[in-house]
Sequence to fold (1602 residues):
Amino acid sequence: MLYREAGQFKTSYAADQALLPILQDRIGLSLILLVAFVGIPLLATDFFIGSVMIPFLVFSLAAIGLNILTGYAGQLSLGTGAFMGVGAYACYKLTTYFPDINIILLILFSGVFSAAAGVLFGLPSLRIKGLYLAITTLAAQFFLEWCFIRIAWLYNYNDSGAIEVPTRKLLDIAITGASATPVVRYLVIISVVTLMALVAANVLRGRIGRSWMMIRDMDIAAELMGIRPLRAKLSAFAFSSYYCGVAGALMVFMWIGSAEVESFDINHSFLVLFMVIIGGMGSLLGCFLGAAFIWVLPIIIRAVPQLIGLDLLAATTEHLTNIIIGVLIIFFLIVEPHGLARLWQLGKEKLRTWPFPYASN
Amino acid sequence: MDILHSIFVAPFIDMGAYPDFLLQVIWEGFVAGVLYSLIALGFVLIYKASGVFNFAQGIMVVFAALVLVSLHEMGMPAWVAVLVSVVVMGLLAIGVERFVLRKLVNQHDAILLMATIGLTLVLKGSGQLIFGGEPKPMITRELGLPTGASDWEVFGGVVIFQHIDIAATVVALLMVLALAVFFSKTRIGRALRAVADDHQAALSVGISLHQIWAIVWFAAGIVALVTGIMWGARSEVSFALEIIALKALAVLILGGFTSIPGAIVGGLVIGIGEKLFEVYWGALFGSGVEAWFAYVLALIFLLFRPQGLFGERIIERV
Amino acid sequence: MRSLPSLPHYLLRNAEQYANRVAMRHKDLGIWREWTWAEICGEVQSYAMGLKELGLCHGDKVAIIGGNRPRLYWSFSAIQSIGAIPVPVYADSVAEEMVYVLEHAGVRFAVCQDQEQVDKVVSVHDQLPGLSNILYDESRGMRDYDVQVILSIDAVQNLGRRALERDSHRAVQWRTEIDTLSGNDMCVMLYTSGTTGRPKGVMLSHDNLIITSINANTFDKLDVDEQTIAYLPLAWVGDHVFSYGQSLTAGYCVCCPESPETISADRREIAPTYFFAPPRVFESLLTAITVAMEDASRPKRAMFDHFIRVAKGYGEDVLNGAPLPLFSRLHYAIGELLVYGPLKNRLGMSRVRVAYTAGEAIGPDIFRFYRSLGINLKQLYGQTEASVYITAQPDGQIDADTVGIPSLDVEIRIADNGEVLYRSPGVFLGYYRDDEATASTRTADGWVYTGDAGFIDEKGHLRIIDRAKDVGRLNDDSLFPPKYIENKLKFFPSIKEAVAFGDGRDYVAAFVNIDLAAVSNWAERNDIVYASYQELAGHPLVYDMIERHIEEVNRDLAAEPRVAGACIRRFLVLHKELDADDGELTRTQKVRRKFINERYQALIEALYSDRDTQFVSTTVIFEDGRKGKIEADVTIRSLGEVPDMQMAS
Amino acid sequence: MNHARRWSDQLSEELGSGASAELLSVDNVSLSFGGVKAIADISFDILKGEVRAIIGPNGAGKTSMLNVINGFYHPQEGIITFRGKQRRRMKPYQAAASGIARTFQNVALFKGMSTLDNIMSGRSLKMHCGFLWQVVHIGPARSEEIRHRRRVEEIIDFLEIAHIRKQPVGKLPYGLQKRVELGRAMAMEPELLLLDEPMAGMNLEEKEDMSRFIIDLNSEFGTTIALIEHDMGVVMDLADRVVVLDYGRKIADGTPAEVQANQDVIDAYLGVAH
Fold:
């Protein structure tokens, strides 16, 4: 209905293969970006930016990372939290040694370290598939967690065992540390996330992304088409972990400001996994939808009882949140195993074929 | 050279020097291994019969133990509380079959796994909501479980055996035997075995798949309850167990997803292995290696034998 | 505005005036390839040079066989530019049908789309002594052919390019040659499929096409910005005028779809502004809409039905710009947002400024349906012999029953027997090698007999009743217009084709062909099980449904005094679909009455007996060319009188 | 189809140098799984440009033979020579790189992708653009993608599947899926194309279409084809030579007519006791 595609024809393969071939999608995305880059910084409260938007964006990025590995390359991972941790600690060490280098560059570079960790722990994927592989990623999770505790060098031998984000500036504006305002941090994060989402989209639609999906859909056939399984899987691990690492660095430097091992524990791995499941495996849009859903839902659950004058303990709402998210996961798997992104896609298809129930040609 | 010495020589010298201590460490590891095996057993039961990788087995242990303890707190006599807990686990099994599994028939494995992760969250949330998140002591004495310890003088030293550990081992053994009898001697047990091989075969025995699923989940629930009691008696009933229960996944890798003997052997290997590693090699790494030893062992193991200890070699077909 | 002498002149003009405007698109290998007028002119030039190299001369005839492909359209221009005459041939005709046209026209070259067409020509090659070369567009499967005689258009263009390189003077020469063309020269020869007898070659001059095209463009204010989609047979005069003549004179863009299966998707992508389709296409589109909407959810269907009713109420007025109360306007606007807009979008008609239908009567409901959506669908009346346009409906003066007022420069006269005659600048030069037929069709002072009976109504619009020779009389001397009755029947979605009988009989009887798509859908919803078309067609419940439709038609007929005697008394549902491959329909899907009379003699006799079943055995030709037999016991059903009307009278 | 012509010209040049040269030869190959012999001491060859059929009753080892040829199984004994190079062990992706493509008995398409992407995936080996270009998706990455898209479109045109170009393959009718799979293998521009029951489960019309594509593929592009097929009519029409397997052994080898007249073959098909 909203989609009126008559008259949109492609005269080149470049246009036909564009990320958003439909005009209405391009308009929609432009509006969203306009709101994100201009509307929110101008109008939203610090609470909204600091507690809703920033975490949402950080988790979206982590979810993109996991989704690349799990949704696109078909390799289930339960080690997202740890890979995020590698990024965060790497960034911390880098800025300790190179305090003068722009922190944004360091954040982007810190992902390289988690990519390396990803490749290392992705090695077993050549021989191990599916659930078995998921369990080996637990090894990464627990081993790295242990490293974050035991290797004091990582947190500069602080007594607290935690890393404290120093203040770093860009053009004399504080972008990390206590003096950085939420709006500034938000603008940095949204720029990074937008850029990296675009990069992910580009890679996924090209030769490399296709090789991942080939491995995911039918690894034997992929190999018989000339795909080297090891190379494809490891590149997926590396690329995915890079995203998780950058997300981890952003999380610490742009959001919570300090971190210890609990920030990267197995629960975070699961949290990101839930985002990917509910958002939709194999969909970039799904990463954002899933992150919004899983992050915003608890905020709403916390807010609702207050609104209706009910006074619940913080712990109670947390338990309720767990139950609701658990039920929703099951519900989604039953109703639409492909998540919110598929729901949107189905809805969009409805709008495209409106008033017909399906495309009849 | 020092490093090689401290890895390959020194620990063994230590072992030889204090064999009583070694024995004590092995016993501690053995008991932990028994509990890993029990959790793994729950996984295997469900996986064998329904192909579902039940991630919620760990939380089921906590949940069952919490139900028991809380019922007793509410004033129920211990053994009545056990019976009621059994009923609760039965209801849970029926509920899971009815509202989750039945709706996800023929779905991909990964989706079923995800569903049990969802179930984990529900059980965790509702457990904490109803019973509170605080750790609770197990009603060991009320259940007539032994406490105290016996000393065994050997190798010129003393090895201490906690009675509850001995009891746990015995109970685990009994349960494995009971399961073995159940599977080989009863009609339902045979049907369960059949269903693991071939769904059609099970139908010909006259039991519906729905019933079978409910039964295995119930059986896994009982295993969880027993595990919970034993574990609780050794330490306490708390949600921290959930993370430890993940080690059962490593056990499964060693033992294979479908093998009950595998689960037992795997559990013991990991239990004993991680204790030995922690005690004799842990200092090299800085302690706390127990947290990851099981997984790394599983990972290394997988690289050489992806089919598990007792699994058959897989031939891929095109 | 003074017109140029020939169509190639227009190509040259466009190459100058509209050099960089897109003249043609073709969806090829997944994307729309585009050519500007300047590029097309270049292609045509090298093509023409190549043809000359091959020895094609002024006055030679060249067959063009295939679908709507850019190169085939360029073939027209290239051939015309050297004074030779293109003869487009229906691509779906079998070799035996084709050979008559090729032989009659005496073609020297044949331009084929692909291997399939080449093979057909090759198979009758020995009957065509004049044929020297075969050209083809698509090279697939063409490896093993004799390259001396059979060569690709590409190769011909390369020949031409090389010739131009050798001698740059050629380009100038080509233009000079074009300048020697005059408006009276034959421009194209179109064979009419004709309902009876052999096809006749209608010779049209450059002026015929140019003047009618310009007049049509003026009439509908068509200009260089239009987009149209070419999907109708090349050999049909309509396509030659809409996709070629009018495009050249107005300079607008013609788009060729990727394949027959993708036409609707391609139309949606292009969203033409000027669109022509025979009533059949509009009918089947409407059927598809109805069928698809039956699967929609209940609320959506209710909403859809509601707004379609709203459209029926005010749509026509909105389109005609008639004054309406604000509320109705709003109501329609919401409908436009929710239903009409999206629907036009799906149909690829959201940008249509002018749409025409012609060739047959269109069901008034269907016609009004599209108009009520805001699509400016109009009717025209035309003939090959007139270069299409005889009459057309001007914007705002639309009536489902008329075909409009005489087109620009066209005069119309009604003969005493009711036959329509016209005189216009589009009137053809004559039938090729058939002066007798020419003389009997066109009077000495230029009037042409259309063969259709009709009259001009009080508003000056022409109304067509039927083929003049087909209007018959029942034994009680009441009027029997078969097509009029058949059309009424065909307006029901479940009836695809109908043939009425009654001339010289006691009463009217009919054959009915069910529409498989619509009826099978209906059957599914009503739990009717069937294994084949034949079984479905013979199903008693299907008969019941058809009977109800016929009763409705009878009521309509009875209400009109002039045809009240022609109510249908008996009918049968045919066991097979009438098919052009079996010779039952023409290539333009018109019923071949005479052929059917012979072929189904037994069934017709049974309709006029008191039997209620009749055995019939028919030979058919399958798609792959094999022959087979279909046998059936066809049920015949009688209808009662029309009681209501009799009570009323 | 300009590229088609170039491609086939190139092939015919090669053919010219050694007409009816051996493209592949299988010498004394044996394969067993845990003591069960799937293939026992089989030898045969495939000539450049021919259509070679491998037939035999169920369980004769036909699919195992294809698996050996494209490196999926490693025979315990015997040597395979492809384009003059001998090999014993080879990874499937190396076989692909050396010019062997195949289709599968049970369609093995990438279910999550569209027709277009599935066929594009066949071009994987021919695409080399680096990661960094892919990240920005401009310049070489884009032009490479477009270049290959064009080739793929030619295949789509060849197989007459333009109307399903953008549909996900999972929902396509079986016959079309088989066609897409053939397209994917064609996209690899292989020297040798292995077709494992390309017409299984098809109706008559679909079989005719598929036969036409196979013939055109062979004659237009000169692709050498080895196919397993149960429909004897199809085999006799398509194949230049036929090799017959039964219980892992070769029982006949020759032209369709010869094979049809062979007593062992008749026995095997009629199920005479061994």
